[in-house]
Amino acid sequence: MAKIITLQDIPEKELNRYYELVQASICRKATTSKYVVDYRLRDLDGAYIKHSTKTFARRSDAKAFIDSLKNEHAVALYKQEHPENAMTFCELYEEYESFRAFKDKPGTII
C-alpha cells in the first residue's frame, strides 16, 4: 500500500518554497465585524490556480484557515512533484472499502 503523504514527510526547504506559492491577506469589513480572507494559489510554474475570498467571524479563524490552506496546498504540490508517492486506484478502493465497513451494514457492503 502506498504511503499517505503528510506535512511531516515534506523536507523543510521544499515546504518553504510551497508556502510562498500561497498569497493570502486578511482584512476587516467596515460595515460588519467580519474578517475577509482573500487568497490566491499558484502552481509550480507560477500560474494562478484559484483566486477566492472567504468570510470569518473571528480573526483567529481566518488565520487558522490560511495555515490549513498552506498545508493542504504544500502537500498537493509535493504529490504532484513526486508521482512515485501516488496512490493507485486499487489502493484507494481498498482504503475506501475499509472506511465504509465501519459505517455501513453488512448487507449494504455485499
Write a concise synopsis of the structure shown.
The longest helix is centred in the middle third of the chain and has 23 residues, at 59-81. The mean pLDDT is 82.
SSE map:
Elements: H1 12-19, E1 22-28, E2 35-42, E3 48-56, H2 59-81, H3 89-103, H4 106-109
Antiparallel strand pairs: 1-2, 2-3
Helix pairs in contact: 1-2
Feature tags:
single chain; about 110 residues; alpha+beta; three-stranded antiparallel sheet; 3 strands
Task: Explain what you see.
- By secondary structure, the chain is of the alpha+beta class.
- It has a 3-stranded antiparallel sheet, covered by helices on one side.
- 45% of the residues lie in helices and 22% in strands.
- The chain has helices at residues 12-19, 59-81, 89-103, 106-109, and strands spanning 22-28, 35-42, 48-56.
- It is built from 4 helices and 3 strands.
- The chain is flat.
Question: Radius of gyration from the CA trace?
Answer: 18 Å
Determine the structural class based on helices, strands and strand pairing. Answer: alpha+beta
User: What is the average of the pLDDT values?
Assistant: 82
Encode the helix/strand succession as letters.
HEEEHHH
- Helical residues, percent: 40-55%
Question: In which order are the strands of the major sheet placed?
Answer: 1-2-3
- Uncertain segments are none
- Strand proportion: 15-25%
The biggest beta sheet is recorded as:
3 strands, antiparallel
Shape, please? flat
How many helical elements?
4
Total strands: the figure is 3
